[in-house]
Write a structure and sequence with these properties.
Layout lengths: L3 E4 L14 H9 L3 E5 L17 E3 L1 H7 L2 E4 L5 H4 L7 E4 L7 H9 L3 E4 L14 H20 L7 E3 L2 E3 L3 E5 L3 H12 L3 E5 L6 H6 L3 E2 L18 H15 L4 E4 L14 H5 L6 E4 L16 E4 L2 E4 L9 H16 L3 E2 L2 E2 L6 H5 L1 E4 L2 E2 L4
Parallel strand pairs: 1-2, 1-4, 2-3, 4-5, 5-6, 9-10, 9-12, 10-11, 12-13, 13-15
Antiparallel strand pairs: 6-18, 7-8, 14-15, 16-17, 18-19
Helix pairs in contact: 1-10, 5-6, 5-10
């Protein structure tokens, strides 16, 4: 019998993405796989059941019971894991850090689980990198939120009533989300600057038409991430940043490292030194925020400064976010399937390093 690749309708609050889109379902069918989805799985993302060709639909119980590979956007509930067949593969963003109970549940059912957040950051892994694909969506949406909530226009406007000067926008962090935020602010006509403690990002920031903010602190690290700053470096960074923040109308902060609390970059004192009407959009809110005053998912008014901590921004553009995410899933699934059978090659670095649990054996060390 052919392998059954399945996906459920995501149940987390506000989650509208789906792990298998019609495009990817067609590719999987082309490999001779059976696709079994829960009724309405893709509907919140803009993919009604009728948009899927040669795909079977069933209730959640049947999908769970027949899955050989369950693709997900966010970790399945423990009651779902408890009903999967032993030997089933679970693939998606499984949020392994600090999730001992979930990992134990995967092991108890003798499942094999791959968490794509753990992929090595190599050239070969880029096509499977869910962190990057979803960060691009988040960076784009963060800047739209900033433009909507700022009390000023982003572009320069020349009107009969006079000329309106463009907003000055700073993006902190020049990873995928930060670069997409910079590009979006540029399209909207803002006067944009970017800052990152990794000096090698200067060229990327400038290539998007932004000015690189130089604070004299370097924290180049390994694996594409910044290393942790020393106390002296952090103090120097904060003093230099505080001096510059006074001129910006909007700050979008994106600095985050998977599995760790977001670095605190914007202090209460810095916020109090910003101009009246200034806005902070803290994209790192889910991991604690880059600003000391951020409250995840909330709107905070501190004096004359507004601080927003939006959550799960990728779910707010579910169609394109799902298309990119599903392609990531498909590209990784190709490493797990050989000759029509599930046969992960654990000699492959990408397979081995992203594996949480293998046939009930816990491999991930948090």
């Amino acid at each position: 019998m052919s392998i059954t690749v399945s996906a459920l309708r995501e149940t987390a609050a506000g989650e509208r993405r789906v792990a298998i889109t019609p495009e990817v379902a067609k590719k999987l069918r082309g490999k001779g796989l059976r696709i079994l989805l829960e009724h309405g799985a893709g509907a919140p993302a803009g993919f009604p059941d009728a948009s899927y060709a040669e795909v079977e639909f069933a209730g959640a119980e049947q999908v769970i019971g027949q899955a050989d590979l369950l693709a997900c956007v966010l970790p399945p509930d423990e009651d779902v894991l408890a009903r999967l067949r032993a030997g089933c593969i679970v693939l998606g963003q499984l949020r392994p850090h600090g999730a001992a109970a979930r990992i134990d549940a995967l092991a108890a059912r003798q499942l094999t689980a791959f968490s794509l957040e753990l992929l090595p950051r190599t050239t070969r892994a880029q096509a499977m990198d869910v962190l990057s694909s979803q960060a691009a969506v988040a960076g784009y949406r963060a800047m739209l939120i900033a433009a909507e909530n700022a009390p000023k226009f982003f572009p320069m406007l020349t009107t009969a009533a006079g000329t309106i000067r463009p907003s000055r926008v700073l993006v902190i962090g020049a990873g995928v989300a930060g670069l997409q935020a910079i590009a979006t602010a540029r399209r909207l006509g803002a006067q944009i600057e970017g800052y990152d403690v990794r000096p090698e990002t200067r060229e990327q920031v400038e290539s998007l038409g932004a000015k690189f903010l130089e604070l004299g602190v370097s924290a180049a690290g390994s694996g594409g991430y910044a290393r942790e700053l020393t106390a002296e470096e952090r103090a120097a960074q904060q003093q230099a940043l505080a001096d510059h923040l006074k001129v910006f109308d909007v700050v979008v902060s994106t600095a985050a490292v998977p599995g760790r609390p977001a670095p605190k970059i914007l202090t209460k004192a810095m916020v109090e030194g910003m101009k009246p009407g200034a806005l902070i959009v803290d994209l790192a809110a889910e991991s604690g925020g880059n600003c000391e005053l951020t409250r995840p998912g909330e709107r905070v008014e501190h004096g004359d400064v507004l601080i927003l901590g939006p959550l799960n921004l990728a779910a707010g553009a579910p169609l394109h976010a799902s298309e990119m995410y599903a392609r990531n899933i498909y590209n990784f699934a190709e490493l797990l399937i050989r000759d029509g059978a599930l046969a992960p090659d654990f000699n492959d670095e990408l397979v081995a390093k992203s594996c949480l649990v293998r046939n009930g054996e816990i491999l991930f060390k948090s």
